[in-house]
Structure formats: C-alpha cells, structure tokens
Amino acid sequence: MAFCRGPRLPYTGRMGRGPNSGDSRLVYSTDGGRGRPPLTPHNRKPPGAPPAAGKPAAPDDGVVRIMRDRKGRGGKTATAITGLPGTEPELDAVLKKLKQQCAAGGSREGRTLLIQGDHRDALLATLTALGHKARLAGG
Length: 139
Prior knowledge:
Structural class: alpha+beta
CATH class of the domain at 76-136: Alpha Beta
Radius of gyration: 27 Å
CATH superfamily of the domain at 76-136: SUI1-like domain
Shape: elongated
Strand content: 15-25%
Low-confidence stretches: none
Number of strands: 5
Order of helices and strands: EEHEEHE
Distance between the termini: 69 Å
CATH architecture of the domain at 76-136: 2-Layer Sandwich
CATH topology of the domain at 76-136: Translation Initiation Factor Eif1
Strand order of the largest sheet: 3-4-2-1-5
Helix content: 10-25%
C-alpha cells in the first residue's frame, strides 16, 4: 500500500539528479579530479631540475639545537634535537638516556632525535651535562 502522489521516478542514485544534469557534485575520482590544472610549460619542472628539498639541512656548526615541533603529528608536541655528533649506535644510546631522563617515549629519524612532549629545559640541562654545546632553537 503506497501513499505516493505523482508519477514514480526511477532511482538514479543521485537523489533526484539525472546522470546528464550537469550539476552533480563529484565525491571521489581516480582520474585526477577536476581540481587539478592541466600541465603547461609554465608549471612543469624542467627534465634536469633537482628535486625540491622538503626541509633544509641542519647546520653542522657543532651546536646541538633543541626545538619544539608539532608538524605532522596531529597537534601533538614533540621535542626535536638536531646537530648531535656521533655514529648511529651512539645516537641510539644518547636517545635512550634522554628518554629515561624525561620519562617519555621517542624515536630517531635520521640524525634527528624526537622525544614525545615538550621537555626542552630538561634536555638542555642533560645535554649540557653530557658535554655538548646545546641551545634552545625555534619558538
């Protein structure tokens, strides 16, 4: 028993919009979408161009820099330490000591040590006691 008034329309899957209506809203597309501008000689890189660098390399001047970082972590704060001398096993040993000092987790990404949370003051004191020339960097 149907109480529908008017002609019954076939289901198109678009809430009343026909497939050729022109005002459809694209939700997902695997062909690059409509938002990407076409490549022209003005926005295309030359074939021999070097790849764009994401982050500039940390200066190698003997100073250990301690900075707060929140990028790429969903708003979570981490303390990044760059400029530490030594081999990778030595960096792992220093990272372990710093994590124990701060009672926090952490990891190593290349030559950058990451400690979870904002522990800049405690890390500055610890690294200075270990004999490194350390200073706070960033904001």
